[in-house]
Every structure is written in C-alpha cells, then in structure tokens.
Specification:
Elements (H helix, E strand, L loop, with lengths): L1 E2 L2 E2 L3 E3 L7 E4 L10 E4 L2 H9 L6 H21 L5 H13 L6 H14 L6 H40 L5 E5 L16 H8 L4 E6 L6 H13 L3 E4 L4 H6 L5 E4 L3 E3 L4 E4 L2 H10 L4 E4 L5 E2 L5 H4 L8 H4 E6 L2 E6 L12 E4 L6 E4 L2 E3 L3 H7 L9
Parallel strand pairs: 6-7, 6-9, 7-8, 9-12, 10-13, 12-17
Antiparallel strand pairs: 1-2, 3-4, 4-5, 10-11, 11-16, 14-15, 17-18
Length: 375
C-alpha cells in the first residue's frame, strides 16, 4: 500500500544488508513514519511485545523472520545443538503475545521446515529465510483474496442503496499495517474503493492504544478512502440511527466453531449490530484459525497488558510526542487486550477461501483439509 505515494509493506528484508529485517515502527504513527532495523531475536521479541508491530498477519511474518535471525545467531554463536537453540528462540517469541495464534503458527512452521536438516546450519539459514519470505508473500496473497470475496458484500449493499455511499464500521486496525499488505478487514474496503464504489468508514478510536484513531485513520487517509474517527462508544448510536450498513473487523484467533478473539471492545460492537439487524463480519486468513479450540470464550487465552496503557495517553504537542496522565495517579487500572465474540453474534466470516457462516460446519466446508469437523 502507499505511503506518501510510495509503495510499502510492513516488514521486509533490508535490500543492502540481508541479515537485517526492517519494519514500520507503528508506535510513532500517525505523526512520524519510522523504519526500524531488527538484527536479533531479542529485537524481534521487543518489537512484538512492545507493539512496534501488531496485527495477526504481521505478527506471523515477524515471527517467521525472527526465526531466520535465530538461525543467523546460532551460526554466529557456534551453537552445536542448533535445533534446540531454535526451539528455545521460538518459545521466546511465542511468549510475547499469547492471544495471537499466528505467532505460534509461524514459529511451528519454521521449526517443522528445518527439523529434517539436523544441525546443518547453512542449510537451516537458507531454509528459514525461504520460509519467512513465503509466510510474508502468502499473507499478501491471502489478504488480496479476502478483499475480492468481501468486495461482493459491499457491492451488494451499494446496489441496494442505488449507488449511494456504503457506511462501514471497523474496530482497531485490521488494515495493511496489521498484515504485510492489503489487510484483512480493510482489504474489501480498498477493493471497493479501487473499483469506484462510494464507501465511508467509521473508525473506532480503539482505546487504550488507539490503533483505530492512530493507524486505521492514517492508512485510510494515505489511500484516499473517506473516513471519520469516532469514540469507541459512538458505534451503537450510529447503528440505531441507520448510519452503519455493515461492520467488518479482524481476528487474532478464531475457534474452529466460529468464536472470534479480537481487540477489546469488538464484542460490544457485535451486540449493538445484532440488536440493530446490521450485518457483522469478521475477515481473517486461515492462519488465524485455532483448530484445537471449540469454545472461544472459555479456551482462548486473553492477554493482559500493562495498566499504564490505560492510565496514560500519548499525542503530539508542539511538534513533540508527549505522554500525559489521564487518571488519578494512584487509581488502579486493568488492561485486557482482547475479548471474544461468540459465533452466534457473527453474520459471517470473510476468509481467503470465501465467505462462510461462523459455525463449525461453515468453516469445515471451506477448510475440510484443516478442520477437525467431519461433514
């Protein structure tokens, strides 16, 4: 996608230094566009934990490239038992973000790929680099496919409104910044915009880290998509007054029965959409499914982050990014990163293989090769 008219991805191999991974450091957006170099597994772990990168797709890609850097470290440190070292580094990466299933998926994909290579470090380095590149390229292609399938939903709404603007509400950032390119929830929006449909996006601010206000609004603006930032609590009011035609959100982990873990506050949007008969869709790639979990509310681990993210907020003042205290200094706060929307509240899932119901049967119909459900 474009940044000031120049195409970028969220993560890539440095052109003149192939032992370095580069990312867009999302902490500085929308006020500054910063590219960060990652040289070690520790760099990647910090980038994941402190949300220099965030979003299911790019979390997976970062983990893939992190395992490539781990193989380089194994060589530099002359590790004799390379496989054990890689497993340890993989566990280190997985511990940074427990809810996002793409992280563990990417690490396991790397470990499985290098397992037959024993301690042949040169072969391992070559393989981990190839797999990391494949994970990133696959994410781009899968998100593009989501856009094509989701476009049909927006097109149908546009036709129903006789070409009038389709108003879409989204939560958090499931855009290209949260993936390698295109995004999940935003991919159908970008496809509709490119094809000339009139669309407008209501962008939830998404407290406490404001990924909607900071990131989704920024990337929509860069692509020229009409949008309006709203406080998180405004969505229900808009739905009551017919100002939302469809809700599209992303997913950090989805059970094989259709329960969806996404950024905290998603569940409340789904309740409001259900009460107002507004279609509520979740956009995701196959790697966001957890094929071992049947009950998302009971089984999906929910990350708790530092309470200071709730108590303090950052913004631009006099050209400098400043942090200010919002609450009484001694008031305690809690910071759950995600909530789970039960399948019964979800109209459908927009996947890389098509649109299906949020149910074990619907998902198994699209993914018979992956789902444990036998139809």
């Amino acid at each position: 996608m474009d940044v000031n008219g120049k195409p970028f991805r969220t993560i890539w191999l440095k052109a003149d230094e192939p032992t370095v991974i580069q990312i867009i450091d999302q902490r500085h957006l929308p006020h500054r566009f910063v590219i960060e170099d990652l040289r070690t597994v520790q760099d990647v772990a910090i980038a994941l934990k402190e949300m220099h990168v965030r979003g299911a797709g790019v979390i997976g890609a970062s983990a893939g490239y992190g395992m490539y850097l781990a193989s380089l470290e194994a060589k530099a440190q002359e590790k004799f038992e390379v496989q054990g070292f890689l497993r340890a580094m993989g566990a280190k990466l997985c511990a940074t973000r427990p809810t996002a299933v793409n992280l563990e998926w990417a690490v396991n994909r790397q470990l499985e790929a290098v397992a037959p290579l024993g301690n042949n470090i040169e072969a391992i380095i070559k393989k981990t680099l190839a797999v990391a590149g494949a994970i990133a390229l696959e994410d781009i292609q899968l998100c593009k496919s989501i856009g094509e399938h989701g476009f049909e939903l927006i097109q149908a709404l546009s036709e129903k409104k006789q070409g009038d603007t389709v108003n879409i509400l989204t939560h958090c950032n499931a855009g290209w910044l949260g993936c390698v390119d295109n995004g999940t929830a935003t991919s159908p929006i970008y496809e509709a915009h490119r094809k000339g449909l009139k669309v407008h996006v209501w962008v939830d601010e998404t407290r406490p880290r404001n990924q909607g206000a900071r990131l989704t609004a920024w990337e929509l603006g860069q692509q020229g998509v009409p949008h309006t930032v709203i406080p998180d609590n405004v969505g229900g009011h808009l739905m009551q007054h017919g100002m939302v035609d469809i809700v599209i959100v992303g997913s950090d982990r989805t059970s094989y029965t259709g329960d969806v873990a996404n950024k905290i506050g998603t569940y409340l949007k789904a309740l409001a959409a259900k009460d107002n008969n507004i279609p509520f869709y979740v956009a995701l790639t196959y790697s966001a499914f957890d094929w071992t979990i049947s009950d998302g509310v009971k089984q999906i681990p929910i990350e708790q982050r530092d309470a200071t993210e709730v108590k303090y907020i950052k913004g631009l003042k006099d050209g400098e990014i400043t942090e200010v205290l919002l609450t009484p200094k001694n008031s305690p706060a809690v910071n759950y990163g995600f909530d789970v929307t039960p399948a019964r509240l979800i109209t459908g899932l927009i996947t890389d293989r098509g649109v299906c119901s949020a149910s074990a049967e619907g998902i198994a119909n699209l993914y018979p090769d992956l789902s444990p459900v036998v139809l």
